[in-house]
Specification:
The protein is of the alpha+beta class and 267 residues long. It folds into two domains: 102 residues, Pseudouridine synthase I, catalytic domain, N-terminal subdomain (Alpha-Beta Plaits); 145 residues, Pseudouridine synthase I, catalytic domain, C-terminal subdomain (Alpha-Beta Plaits, 2-Layer Sandwich). Helix content is 23%, strand content 28%. The protein is built from six helices and ten strands. Strands 1, 2, 3, 4, 5, 6, 7, 8, 9 and 10 form a ten-stranded mixed β-sheet that branches. A hairpin with an 8-residue loop joins β2 and β3. α3 crosses α4. The longest helix has 13 residues. Formation of pseudouridine at positions 38, 39 and 40 in the anticodon stem and loop of transfer RNAs. GO terms for molecular function: tRNA pseudouridine(38-40) synthase activity.
Length: 267
């Protein structure tokens, strides 16, 4: 048996998310079907996490156990030649049998993109939330430090969350503004990117944070309200859930030392 770790990037516009759903049409469904076409094996892949319908991924690691002896360097091309054009395997490596793409993950980073320009970008419309109204980006930035640390994030979790604990750790949260595309004569604000890194995230957590940030940017809440919302541990205290299309799983990080240690344990 071999344990293969791969990274997939995908445009989630036309899918019901990464993880298999009763209605099908998920990224996982297509990858598993493609592996079956290639090897004849019916296998289950295990992702580093799940993404909701319409959410995208720049780097989504997953692993699976296979008896196939296809050389590791051939997997990427073989799968990409059979997958839909909006799903692409970007890397493949063999890892110890003890490795698990979700349980072994140390840090995950999401990016949420807000187009603050008057006119939405035709070519990026599926990857950005369009918000032409004026936003106080400085106030939005001032609210982010309240999210850093280890907290109970119930206020920023979906009411349908089934997790036993809503305690997570956020290591970093920052806003970057790309003003490279500007149109004279209007109050163009550029593209506002939120990058948020943690040890894990709850269902809809980043999107609810974004919805709350937008209310702060619109002047409906003060930056300090983020602290009170967090402490209340009540979903009703936070803002709305932002659209899924602006969200992208940006990066998942592993401890290479722990991978090597698990490899030694397999021997």
């Amino acid at each position: 048996m071999r344990n293969l770790l791969m990274t997939v990037c995908y445009d989630g516009t036309n899918y019901y998310g990464f993880q298999t759903q009763p209605g099908g049409n998920t990224v996982q469904d297509y990858i598993e079907a493609t592996i079956c076409q290639l090897t004849g094996e019916v296998i289950k892949i295990h992702g580093s996490g799940r993404t909701d319908a319409g959410v995208h991924a720049r780097e989504q690691p997953f692993h699976f156990i296979t008896d196939s002896q296809i050389p590791i360097e051939r997997w990427r091309m073989a799968l990409n030649g059979r997958l839909p054009k909006d799903i692409r395997i970007t890397s493949a490596r063999e890892v110890p049998l003890a490795f698990h793409s979700r349980r072994s993950a140390k840090r995950k980073t999401y990016r949420y993109s807000i187009n603050g320009n008057r006119v939405p970008d035709v070519f990026q419309r599926n990857y950005q939330l369009h918000h032409p109204g004026k936003l106080d980006v400085a106030a939005m930035r001032d609210s982010l430090p309240f999210l850093i640390g280890t907290h109970d994030y119930t206020s920023f979790a979906s009411r349908h969350s089934t997790k036993a604990s809503h305690v997570r750790t956020i290591y970093e949260a920052k806003l970057e503004v790309d003003s490279s595309i500007e149109y004279p004569g209007t109050h163009e604000q550029g593209i506002i990117h939120l990058y948020i890194t943690g040890n894990g995230f709850l269902q809809h957590m980043v999107r609810i944070i974004v919805g709350t940030l937008l209310e702060i940017g619109e002047g409906k809440r003060q930056p300090g309200a983020m602290k009170a919302i967090l402490e209340e541990q009540n979903r009703k205290a936070a803002g709305p859930t932002a659209e899924s299309k602006g969200l992208m799983l940006w990066k998942v990080e592993y401890d290479e030392h722990s991978i090597r240690m698990s490899e030694e344990g397999d021997n």
